[in-house]
Amino acid sequence: QKCEKIAARYRKRLEAAENRLRLARERAARAQAALGKIEAQHTIARHKRTWNLGTSLKSYIDPRVYHRWGERVAYDALERYYPTALRRKFAWVKTLSLAEALSDVERPIRTCMSSDLVAVADLFQAVGRAFPGAALPMTPEEIGERFLPDLHKSWREAFVALGEEHEVRAMVALGPVWEAEGQAYLDLFAVMRPGEADEELAERLAFEIERRLQAYRLHNGQDIDLRPQDTSWFAYAPALVEALELAEPTR
Predict the structure, then answer these.
(1) Counting Cβ atoms within 10 Å, is residue 236 exposed (0-12), middle (13-18) or buried (19+)?
(2) Same domain for 175 and 156
(3) 219 in the same domain as 186
(4) Where does the chain have alpha helices with state H?
(5) 62 and 128: one domain?
(6) CB atoms within 10 A of CB 104
(7) I need a surface site. Which of 101, 119, 196, 221 has the fewest CB within 10 A?
(8) Shared-domain flag, residues 196 and 146
């Protein structure tokens, strides 16, 4: 009888230990699931940092697409499709001539994506060869870290100009906001491929910079001007400096 009592106590202890083990495994499984969820959220945030998935596609699809379609079917897409705020933001599409529109299709200027960074690195390396003293990031990772939007950093965005072979002819970065003499300014950085003295490209880049500056002002309710913190890039994009009338470019 004594042996039976001892055996019963051990069975009870064993059952308690098994219950604790089961509960520990369940907690570990829940923790693993939570970790997986956090990792997935981190991956999504990292890959969508240029795009806000909660924003209407009206804000992201190039308004020239809607405008040109509307012209073909006698429909004023700008006035009848977009809300008031976006009509003001995209009013510039009506100023584009057909030649400009075709030029934009063949040699587009668009937001710089992470998939462009290898080509941007090639551009920066070409600038580095032409200007040995240029303090530029040279790897795709360094360029992305410095210029692409990041959820954990102040606002900034970058765009690229592509050639007919879809090579990167120029890259421009706007932001972040910085202060000088008690005044807020939006930083500006640009690089053009060495020997790229294309005034037409410089004018298109200047137009895109102004368009994005106006969009920033509208979205943030802030009347802010451009002012580069570092003007060393003026040597890498003299045609753009001249188009923006920032300073007398170094020849």
Answers:
(1) buried
(2) yes
(3) yes
(4) 2-47, 63-72, 77-81, 84-89, 98-106, 117-130, 140-147, 199-220, 238-244
(5) no
(6) 16
(7) 221
(8) yes
d(CA 173, CA 171): 7
With a CB cutoff of 8 Å and minimum separation 6, the contacts of 183 are: none
Output the domain CATH number for residue 137: 3.40.630.30
Nearest to 78 by CA among 63, 62, 96: 63
Check whether residue 118 and residue 239 sit in a common domain.
yes
Q: Are 170 and 237 in contact (CB under 8 A)?
A: yes
Q: CA 122, CA 242: separation in Å to the nearest integer? A: 25
pTM of the predicted structure, to 2 decimals: 0.57
Provide the residue-wise pLDDT of the chain in tens; the chain has 251 residues: 677 778 888 888 888 899 889 999 999 988 888 888 887 776 666 655 544 555 555 555 677 778 878 888 888 888 888 888 777 777 777 765 444 554 454 568 888 888 899 999 999 999 999 998 888 999 999 999 999 988 788 888 999 998 877 889 999 999 899 998 889 999 999 999 887 667 778 888 888 888 888 888 888 778 889 999 999 999 888 888 988 888 644 43
Burial class of residue 84 in the structure, from the number of CB atoms within 10 Å of its CB (0-12 exposed, 13-18 middle, 19+ buried) = exposed
Q: Which residues on neighbouring strands pair with residue 190, listed in sequence order?
A: 172
CA 119 to chain centre: 16
Please check whether residues 122 and 240 belong to one and the same domain: yes
